[in-house]
Amino acid sequence: MARNSISDELIIETSARLSNKVGLDNLSLKMIAEELDIKSPSLYNHISSLDDIKEKLMIYGWKELGEKAIDSAVGVSGYDALRKMCYAFYDYTTNNKGVFQAMLWYNKFKSEEMANATIKIFGILHKILEPLNISSNNVEHIIRTLRSFLEGFSLLVNNNSFGNPISIKESFDLSLDIIINGIKSLEGVK
Amino acid sequence: MARNSISDELIIETSARLSNKVGLDNLSLKMIAEELDIKSPSLYNHISSLDDIKEKLMIYGWKELGEKAIDSAVGVSGYDALRKMCYAFYDYTTNNKGVFQAMLWYNKFKSEEMANATIKIFGILHKILEPLNISSNNVEHIIRTLRSFLEGFSLLVNNNSFGNPISIKESFDLSLDIIINGIKSLEGVK
DNA sequence: TTGACTAAACTAATTGAATTAGTTATAATG
DNA sequence: CATTATAACTAATTCAATTAGTTTAGTCAA
């Protein structure tokens, strides 16, 4: 070790905080370095590029969200658990806009590390959905439905894309009603 | 007029084509200029910045998608029409990845021009949903549900985010089943 | 305690894209 | 045919990312 010894974790946490504040697109090495009180080339002792940071941010986000999702589903089951988990998702993504942006654009499923980062949240979804009277193939499809809706809704909220003045919370609740009722309509089928 | 006189439309169409090929993040003025056989500073006679192009791309995309959506819903009604429209959406967004990226990040509803660009697609959704036995407030919420799902699903597909080998088309179909059944379960309520 | 080793900082230099400034050529119009 | 405005051009600037090469300071073995 030598000098300050800024840890890799500190860099990612700092990047997360900054990107949540200014948006992932505006995150720069300059900004991160200033926040850490070092010069930007020094960052290269820890990371290999700005894109590298963004990829680490993606993994960081999925892991952190995984933890929150687990917590949210403790002591509940079935559709109650599903609903709680969806709230946890929404809560995390809208309170961590920058990290969520990274989670979106970089979730290409390429690395082992990425698979590990998402294992928790997929595990929970399986645990919630499998006891229901739904074919295992349909469980996989339903997980995609949920992911699509949750990521899409969060994105639209974060981008301020809902022009209408009506309540966003009501929209989220009603959407969950729709999706859950839709899933119920599938129970026992095939 | 003077010289070649490259039109604004040509710039946007070229940018659309290029961004679909290389991704919005990799779109550069250099690349656009080369494709048009001019030097990149010359572009500033037509546009004000790269971001300006991206914003125009967003508007271009929503307009084009609006046309396709209208075509898709001709001669059908109710849930059939809804389903057709969803397919048209999916079809457009997955065949125009770059433009769709612009549509996503820039749909902040700020300008009048943006409102005009989306007026068609919202109009269709209203026309499809309003005859159903659903309160007008819920129609607004349902539109948000649909947007979220459609944008989210397209995003995941474009990013290759579905790790599982199971069929994407089946997932889309089943998702529509779920959402439509969910909407049906709301009919007549309140 | 010291001296070698190495991690991690630094400064200086390079690259490359976006943008700006200032100049020139050509099409249209009268 | 001369004027004018548009839209091209070249040259210069800026700024972030990255690379190259150098220095500093903890660590650890003798």
According to DSSP, the number of beta strands of chain A is 0
Query: What would the principal axes of the Cα set say about the shape of chain A?
Result: elongated
Termini gap of chain A: 61 Å
From the alpha carbons, calculate the radius of gyration of chain A and give it in angstroms: 19 Å
Described by its quaternary structure, the protein is homodimer
Low-confidence stretches of chain A: none
Residue fraction in strands of chain A: under 5%
Largest interface: A-B, 42 and 42 residues
Percent of residues in helices of chain A comes to: 55-70%
Briefly note the structural class of the backbone of chain A.
mainly alpha
Overall pLDDT level of chain A:
94
| Largest pleated sheet of chain A | none
> Count the helices of chain A. How many?
8
- Element pattern of chain A in H and E: HHHHHHHH
Notes on the structure:
The structure is a homodimer of 190-residue chains. Helices cover 69% and strands 0% of the residues of chain A. Chain A contains 8 helices and no strands. In chain A, α1 packs across α3 and α3 runs parallel beside α6. The mean pLDDT of chain A is 94. The A-B interface holds A 104-105, 107-109, 115, 137-138, 140-142, 144-145, 147-153, 155-156, 159-164, 166, 170-171, 174-175, 177-183, 185-186 and B 104-105, 107-109, 115, 137-138, 140-142, 144-145, 147-153, 155-156, 159-164, 166, 170-171, 174-175, 177-183, 185-186. Chain A binds a DNA duplex (30 and 30 nucleotides) through loops.
Quick synopsis:
The structure is a homodimer of 190-residue chains. The first copy, chain A, is built from eight helices and no strands.
